[in-house]
Amino acid sequence: MRDLILAMVKPLVDYPDHVEVETEEGASTITYKLSVHSEDMGKVIGKQGRVAKSIRTVVYAAAGSKQQKKIFLEIVE
Fold first, then answer.
1. What integer pLDDT is reported at residue 62 of this predicted model?
2. How confident is the model over 36-64, as a mean pLDDT?
3. What is the mean pLDDT of residues 37-60?
4. Which strand (E) or helix (H) includes residue 5?
5. Which residues on adjacent β-strands are paired with residue 72?
6. Which domain range does residue 52 map to?
7. What's the pLDDT band for 69 if we cut at 50, 70, 90?
8. In whole angstroms, what is the distance from residue 24 CA to residue 17 CA?
9. Residue 67: is its pLDDT beyond 70?
10. What span, in angstroms and rounded, lies between the C-alpha atoms of 65 and 58?
11. How far is it, in rounded angstroms, from Cα 14 to Cα 47?
C-alpha cells in the first residue's frame, strides 16, 4: 500500500525526494501518514481537497478488500 501511495503522489509534487509515508498499525486500524515538502502541500491537497479525496478513494478501494482493518490516510506537515 505504501508503494501505491508513493506512486500516486510523487508525480504530483516538485520535491519527490521529500515524500514519505509512515505506517501506524493498531488493533483494528492501519494509518498511513503522508508527509511532503511544505511547498507541495497545496498540490497534494488540491482545490477544495479534491486531489486528497481522490488519493484516499484509491487507497481505500485497493486496501478494503485485502485488509480486515480500517484504513486511514492522513496528510501531515
1. 86
2. 92
3. 94
4. helix 2-9
5. 31
6. 2-76
7. confident
8. 21
9. no
10. 12
11. 17
The length of the chain, given as a count of residues: 77
* Residue the block writes with cell 488519493: 55
Dump pLDDT digits (tens) for 2-24. 999 999 999 999 999 999 999 99
DSSP codes of every residue in 23-69 = EEE-SSEEEEEEE--GGGHHHHH-GGGHHHHHHHHHHHHHHHTT-SS
Q: How far apart are CA 77 and CA 37, in angstroms?
A: 8
Terminal CA-to-CA distance of the chain, rounded, Å? 20
pTM for this prediction: 0.87
CA distances from 43 to 3, 14, 66 (A): 19, 9, 29
CATH of the domain at 69: 3.30.300.20
Q: At 52, which amino acid appears?
A: A
When divided into structural domains, the chain yields a total of: 1
